[in-house]
Write a structure and sequence with these properties.
The longest helix is centred in the C-terminal third of the chain and has 21 residues. By secondary structure, the protein is α/β, with parallel strands linked by helices.
């Protein structure tokens, strides 16, 4: 794993995660543990309305942190209820944390290759519907990362588990002087909570 990214992951603290929030995260811990215990692959699809901010942050951090802890059968995905584009500030704050990101296309919905290690296969990041062919069709946990998707998708086709773990939208700060700081804050909050999740799974 890239040295800077490893340093950021190792500096994450879970002290600020409340007991209520830990209860919210527990079903994801249990899902991953169950799959590991049964020798099955772990597929997690993070879902948000636009698949542009929170769901990508969660997918990318989850994949990197799973690898950090040595869970090599974990594969993370993301999707939305509609297609928009991966928001550039998400790319910016992930690069600041040590991910290496290459823009592969200049379309309205650009495609990015996101790497967390020299020899690891890159995460392919672009906005897509949750049922896109890039994503699994069965046996996965659907993690609802925004309240709108949580309320609007009471049923996710193919999901073995549907788990609401919602985050505040940094979009509220777009175009303000606080934008970059708030995106970084949300990114690191998501990273810390996923660090908590994987640190509570036994090999």
């Amino acid at each position: 794993m890239f040295e800077k990214l490893t340093s950021v992951i190792e500096s994450l603290t879970t002290n600020s995660i409340s007991e209520d929030r830990k209860e919210t995260l527990q079903p994801l811990v249990a899902f991953i543990q169950s799959k590991i215990d049964n020798g099955q692959p772990v597929n997690i699809n993070f879902i948000c309305t636009h698949n542009s901010r929170r769901s990508h942050l969660a997918q990318i951090w989850s994949q990197a942190i799973a690898q950090h802890f040595g869970f090599h059968t974990v594969t993370c995905y993301s999707g939305g209820t509609e297609v928009t584009a991966l928001f550039p500030m998400v790319v910016n704050v992930l690069e600041q944390s040590g991910f290496e990101i290459q823009k592969l296309s200049e379309a309205e919905n650009p495609v990015y290759a996101i790497k967390y290690a020299e020899n690891a296969q890159p995460i392919i990041g672009f906005s897509k519907r949750m049922d896109n062919t890039f994503n699994p069709t069965s046996g996965f946990a659907a993690i609802m990362t925004c309240s709108q998707a949580d309320e609007g998708c009471p049923f996710v086709p193919g999901a073995e588990k549907r788990i609401p773990i919602t985050f505040e939208d940094p979009k509220a700060f777009d175009g303000t002087p606080e934008q970059e700081a708030k995106y970084k804050e949300r990114s690191l909050q998501i990273a810390a909570e996923l660090f908590y999740v994987f640190s509570n799974v036994n090999q």
